[in-house]
Amino acid sequence: MVEDYRKSLITYQYESELVKQKLDTMVSDDEIEKYYEKNKDNFELKDNIIKVIYVKVRKTAPKVEKAKEWYKLKDEKSRDALTSYCYQYADNFYLDENAWLLFDDVLKEIPIKLYDKEAFLQNNRTIETQDSTFFYFVNIKGFMMKKNVSPLSFEKENIRTVIVNKRKVELIKKMREDIYNEGMKNKTFEIY
Questions:
Q1: 24-76 confidence digits (pLDDT tens)
Q2: Contact 166, 9 (CB under 8 A)
Q3: Which residues pair with 136 in a beta bridge?
Q4: Which helix (H) or strand (E) holds 138?
Q5: Cβ distance 158 to 27 under 8 Å?
Q6: Which of 20, 32, 94, 164 has its CB 3.0 to 4.6 Å from that of 54, i.e. a possible disulfide?
Q7: What is the 3-state secondary structure (H, E, C) of the chain?
Q8: Helical H runs in 25-147?
Q9: Main-chain dihedrals φ then ψ at residue 65, nearest 5 degrees
Q10: CB 146 within 8 A of CB 48
Q11: What is the pTM of this model?
């Protein structure tokens, strides 16, 4: 048993080194898109997701009224002003309105209780709330409900990982076949 374990450790270490040296981890956007289109049925959303601008700022911060205006506007000047403001005064913020986030993760940052998240998303685009210390400003730029097909941009890194793992499995399988074929050809192994 000890000998079998030793051999399996050696095999594992050899395969790991081979994978490090030979595995192609570069995955093009085209490959990701093709995989997504081919397997769309496997990408059902398990949770609600949103595109959002979020700002958490202390009540004592300067120009809070301006920040209340900027987070709602779409023009570049307002966006730049909000970005500058957030880096100076916000305790927490998220300004990438093109990236998808889990709605539940955003709710963890905002002191509101919801009973029907789907109805809330359908009926609210901007949220302004507060607690004893902070103001919270949220501008929902887009949303997708659970059970819909997840967008490619939300799944991109997962797909990249899947593709790399498939390559890894194929590389190990090919390596084992090559070693077996070489052993058969040279008659350098025994079958027990």
A1: 889 999 999 999 999 998 999 999 999 999 999 999 999 999 999 999 988 89
A2: no
A3: 56, 129
A4: strand 134-144
A5: no
A6: 94
A7: CHHHHHHHHHHHHHHHHHHHHHCCCCCCHHHHHHHHHHCHHHCECCCCEEEEEEEEEECCCCCHHHHHHHCCCCCHHHHHHHHHHHHHHEEEEECCCCCCEEHHHHHCCCCCCCCCHHHHHHHCCEEEEECCCEEEEEEEEEEECCCCECCHHHHHHHHHHHHHHHHHHHHHHHHHHHHHHHHHHHCCCCCC
A8: 29-38, 64-70, 76-89, 103-107, 117-123
A9: -60, -35
A10: yes
A11: 0.75
d(CA 177, CA 171): 10
**Which two structure tokens, joined as six digits, stand for 33?**
């898109």
List of residues 6+ apart from 105 with CB closer than 8 A: none
Both tokens of 131, joined, read 């607690």
Strands 126-130, 101-102: pairing is unpaired
